[in-house]
Design brief:
Layout (H helix, E strand, L loop, with lengths): L1 H19 L7 H13 L3 H5 L2 E9 L9 E2 L1 H13 L4 E10 L2 E9 L1 H5 L5 E10 L2 E10 L4 H12 L5
Parallel strand pairs: 1-6
Antiparallel strand pairs: 1-2, 3-4, 4-5, 5-6
């Protein structure tokens, strides 16, 4: 009886593996949640582990603004800068996933944003995943039609030293 149960269980497992294919990649939304959680807790090593070794960040602010940050060493420095700002809060509003590409619309709050006389701004980010990790991240495209974001952008362009 036990032998026939083991054979049936093995056969069922084999059918499941063949039907599903290779083990599923990490869910991009779950990876994003892990990233935001690690950054909110100041855990740079955990955040960095979510990127591929050759990952690229191309951003509108921070250390990756003048030229994209390529590789984990450059990305680590930018993540350290990010978590140093204890006033920064990021909240995903909408996330869209198609294959290995994820687009997220999110709200950002920080002391710098409040200096502009607004509570928050709305931004968009695009992540490309590879092997369950972030391979590239293009951030942070402002939602210019949002009145608070537009007001912040006007202020930000007039105060380039705060970037």
């Amino acid at each position: 009886m036990l032998k026939s149960f083991a054979v049936s269980s093995s056969a069922a497992l084999l059918i499941l593996v063949v039907a599903v294919g290779p083990l599923a990649q990490a869910d991009p939304v779950a990876v994003q949640e892990e990233l935001f959680d690690a950054l909110a807790h100041g855990d740079v090593p955990s955040a960095l582990s979510l990127f591929t070794d050759d990952a690229v960040i191309d951003a509108e602010s921070g250390l990756c603004a003048r030229a994209p940050c390529v590789g984990k060493a450059a990305i680590q420095k930018d993540l350290e800068r990010y978590v140093a700002d204890k006033t920064r809060r990021v909240t995903p509003l909408n996330t869209y996933v198609s294959g290995d590409v994820m687009v997220t619309r999110f709200e950002a709050r920080s002391a710098t944003i409040q200096k502009a006389g607004v509570e928050r701004i709305i931004l968009w980010g695009i992540r490309e995943m590879r092997g369950g990790k972030i391979a590239s991240y293009r951030c942070c495209m402002p939602e210019r039609t949002d009145p608070q974001t537009a007001r912040f952008l006007d202020w930000d362009y007039a105060h380039p030293s705060t970037r």
